[in-house]
Amino acid sequence: MSFPVTPVLDYFARTSLGPQWTTATSNGDLTISSEAVTGAVAGNGRATFNPQTFGPGCEVFATLATWNPTSPLAALGARFNGITRNGYEFRFTDAVVAVGRVDTGTFTTLQSLSMAVAAGDSMGLRVAGVVLTGWHKPSGGSWRPVVSAVDSTYTGAGAISIFISQVAGQIRIDDFGGGDWPPAYQQAATTLAGARTYT
């Protein structure tokens, strides 16, 4: 099973997010610094890619251009409603990755795995039917699935998104991509049963 099968949508080669992104924040905003997305201020920031929605089968991925090893937190989202802040996310910290559900901005872990990530790594989320799979590619390595879960709360199409919680400027995300996941792959993926991690 290959990942991703969709293109990079934004290389952030400009000075501001622009109209293709809608911010949905609790106490912070996202901006662009050195051609990557980062927090404009300390706190939480979320932005949804708004030129179109994807799904319900879809994927999202990006590269960690800068990764602060002291209490970092970032996520990629799919099937996201930026107004209600409902959808699914693949979250990653300095020691744990997790797939989960976001309900009105509150994240609930569905499955997690102890795993370190580093600057230069790429992260991704694929949502197919009721199966959510988090993917990881170490710098210079290959993509592999690392954690998955099953949830049927949000079944429709939605936006793909970025979430960053940080001290300003200490996490930067680049090469954001994603889109619809082809139906043939969806059918194969939905035969997976139960939550799992991959070793």
Write the layout of secondary structure elements.
Blueprint: E1 8-10, E2 21-23, E3 30-32, E4 37-39, E5 43-54, E6 58-67, E7 73-81, E8 86-93, E9 96-103, E10 106-114, E11 122-128, E12 131-137, E13 144-150, E14 158-166, E15 171-180, H1 183-189, E16 196-197
Antiparallel strand pairs: 1-15, 2-5, 3-4, 5-14, 6-11, 6-15, 7-8, 7-14, 8-9, 9-10, 11-12, 12-13, 13-16
Structure explained in plain terms:
This protein is mainly beta and about 200 residues long. The protein has a single domain, classed as Sandwich (Jelly Rolls). Helix content is about 5%, strand content about 55%. The protein contains one helix and 16 strands. It has a seven-stranded antiparallel beta sheet with strand order 1-15-6-11-12-13-16, covered by helices on one side. A seven-stranded antiparallel beta sheet has the order 2-5-14-7-8-9-10, with no helix packed on it. The model is unreliable at about 185-195 (pLDDT under 50).
* Alpha-carbon Rg, integer: 15 Å
Report helical residue fraction.
under 10%
The CATH class turns out to be: Mainly Beta
Order of helices and strands: EEEEEEEEEEEEEEEHE
Strand content: over 45%
Comma- or semicolon-separated keywords:
single chain; 199 residues; mainly beta; 7-stranded antiparallel beta sheet; 1 helix; 4% helix
